[in-house]
Fold Pseudouridine synthase.
Amino acid sequence: MGDVRSLPVPDGLEGERLDAALARLFGFSRTRAAELITSGDVQLDGATAAKSDRVHAGAWLEVVIPPPPAAPVPVAEPVPGMRVLYEDDDIVVVDKPIGVAAHPTVGWTGPTVVGGLLGAGHRVATSGAAERQGIVHRLDANTTGVMVVAKSEVAYSRLKRAFKERTVDKRYHALVQGHPDPLRGTVDAPIDRHPSGDGRFAVVAGGKPSVTHYDTVEAFRAASLLDVKLETGRTHQIRVHMAATRHPCVGDLMYGADPRLAARLGVTRQWLHAASLSFDHPVTGELVTFTSDHPDDLATALERVRAES
């Protein structure tokens, strides 16, 4: 049994749909609100309500909020194809393959970087939430490339601070549809969860400040290869910002990419790769740089788009 919250519907929500009102009152996504209503955990004036019911100011709302699901723990097993680029007592740098999440999350049953490192006998820092051991930044499951994980507690706290203070140089390569205009520029637009609650993110007024710098490296007939420098590190940031400029990453169907172009180039995910990472080593203070080549699927797509041009 979760917490029961009882309150009158505020005047400002008069006439709203129940799912929208719940989302605004409690900060749920619309999807989450609809699930609670469907499972009978929401009552309006003592009666079970439907998600499309309109609420009236002063109506008595009772909501049973279930306890949060238990945090998943990493499964310690080696991850095929995950290479260690560098390791010392404080950090381990990996070249993350496709289909691997940074750490376990609710609903993710695939391999993780943390689990892969533990499974291969590497130690990782235990600071932070149990399921995020050593994780100081993340890549999407289907974004490949360079990722650093903290092994010592001092490395964890210093790297967390370096990412927060934006002193880490994060470079990505992105193959995007069309030709950005200007060829070199900055996208400075706030990002937050997409109002649909479907797992996407979007440029949203009042979202978290997000800044992406890009530079066209090579222009093709159908697409452009960009060198991208992230100033902030929001979830899906490059994907959202490029989609917002009408130049989504090739293959990124979640953010409006053309499925025919993706099929023609043989891409089954967003064409996005974390190509390099530079930072001051958290213990020695020395500037270190790690790089990763394009994996086979992205390299093949790049050859095809080049050949077409």
